[in-house]
Amino acid sequence: MKKKFAFLLLFSIVPILVLSQQPAFITEKYFPDPGVQFYTPTLSIADDRFASYDEIMKWINDSIAGHTGARIEIIGATPLGRDIPVIYLSHGSGSSAGKIKVWMQGLLHGNEPAGGEALLFLAHELLTTEEGSAFLDNMDIAILPVANMDGYIAMNRRSAGGYDLNRDQTKFADPVSKIIKKAYIDWQADVAFDFHEYQPTRREFSDLGKNGASAFYDVLFLPSGYLNIPEGLRRASKEIFQAEAEQALEKNGYTHNFYFTADVSGEEMILNKGAQSPHSSSTSFALSNSVSMLVETRGIGLGRTSFARRTHSSYIVARAFLESALNHKEEVQRIVAEAREATIAARDDIVVLNAPSYYNTGVKFIDLETGELLTIDLKIKDAENLSPELVRPRPAGYVLEASCKKEIEILSLLGLQVEQLKKKKKQTVESFIVTEYEEDVTEWEKINTVSAKAEIFNQKKVFPKGSYYVDLHQKNANYAVSLMEPESLNGFISYRISMASLGDTISYHRVIKK
């Protein structure tokens, strides 16, 4: 659904209240707000609440839509009927040849509002300042400020349908995921960034300090180490974009580190670093052959506490990303072009399963009782530096039986061209037979996920008219190889898109020669 941008204020303003979970003395000591004047939807409100849907839409209409160089497109509506706006920014109409294409999004999780506020601030700055004009001369920028509008209004991480939209980019159970992915794929970004917030005070930290501790850092960075992403893209995300954003944060007095989650086993706490999950944005963006990064600002559970600081630090990162893209324009374009050429050539093997590396390092926390800064040496499970565990040669393509309607829908949504056979065809293929199959007893995202293993056997098989062929000599082929091998994390078997049981032959097959 697409339409011109026009809004009527149909609904009353409903305050969104969130309680802060941080002692005031810690806020004052470590996280004071910056001396920056904001005019964005929430930060222009004196009340201790977040802007309503109507206020956000009116702000976009009043502050963005009327500017030369801005185009607002409604890419769809949420299940509760709220519009999903994307702000497209560029100088000049017609050809964008030679310009870098940028995608930025915020609020994929509805209870992480600082990223969306920062992106709206950025959009206005790009349109109203001389420095912003230089960016728009050299790049086309798409900004999705509130990806999960229903979740935001409820101040809920999940969508109205109950899904985590950053765990839904291979199964597409939620209609909002489909809407966003189509807009992203159509944009064909060279660089793509997703802005989140993290929860600083967690139960895993309850044994740290005298009476529990809180994570210290303003901003955490989450690039993907997934090995089916071309190496040049992975290196650029860390060595160019993350490194220069870290410098910008330090210049403005903000702290940073790698993004981590914690696992506690007995008395040992292990921090998980990095990403390798195709169902989440930092990996999913990069599988379209874009340089990608997910950014986490310290914020979940804090309500309006330090909200100006959270917004400003997100803005500093977003602006630094644009500066990096501009300053390294030719290098970034070369890296992206080489990644796309390598994918189209179908040269690289498929890394079906990865193994993380481990090391120890000091990580900073704040003692919630005393306010003391703690540096604790912890083991890191590092998914930014993976080793291949199961590797298979990359086929020329996959042939899918006519029953694979859902698989074809997802592959098409991910930008893959699919050919439907107009007559029957006899083809030598490598087929999968399921040798191990285990269904998780715990429901997750309304499914019971599956762990499977398969053996490959060769056969000559007649595929009838109506079967499908996905050639891997195309730009977005890394999505296919990441979903269709049976053991793949977040793949079609894992998420029960493709139904199979022990001993079954899976209904799609590897084609070595077309």
Low-confidence stretches: 1-20
The N- to C-terminal Cα distance equals 37 Å
Biggest sheet record? 9 strands, mixed
Report the count of strand segments. 20
CATH architecture level-2 label of the largest domain: 3-Layer(aba) Sandwich
- Rg, rounded, reads 23 Å
> What is the SS-derived class?
alpha+beta
**Beta fraction:** 25-35%
CATH superfamily of the largest domain, please?
Zn peptidases
Strand order of the largest sheet: 1-2-3-5-4-6-12-8-9
> Into how many domains do the coordinates divide?
3
User: Outline, from the CA principal axes?
Assistant: globular
Task: Average the pLDDT over all residues and give the rounded result.
Answer: 94
Helix content: 25-40%
Continuous helix count = 12
**CATH top-level class of the largest domain:** Alpha Beta
CATH topology of the largest domain: Aminopeptidase
Topology, please?
Elements: E1 3-4, H1 24-30, H2 53-63, E2 70-77, E3 83-89, E4 100-106, H3 114-128, H4 130-138, E5 139-144, H5 149-154, H6 175-187, E6 191-198, E7 213-215, E8 219-222, H7 231-251, E9 256-258, E10 260-265, E11 268-273, H8 281-286, E12 291-298, H9 307-327, H10 329-345, E13 350-367, E14 373-392, E15 397-400, H11 405-413, E16 419-420, E17 425-439, E18 450-463, E19 468-471, H12 477-484, E20 505-511
Parallel strand pairs: 4-5, 4-6, 6-12, 8-9, 11-14
Antiparallel strand pairs: 1-2, 2-3, 3-5, 7-13, 8-12, 10-11, 13-14, 15-19, 15-20, 16-19, 17-18, 17-20
Helix pairs in contact: 3-4, 3-9, 7-9, 7-10
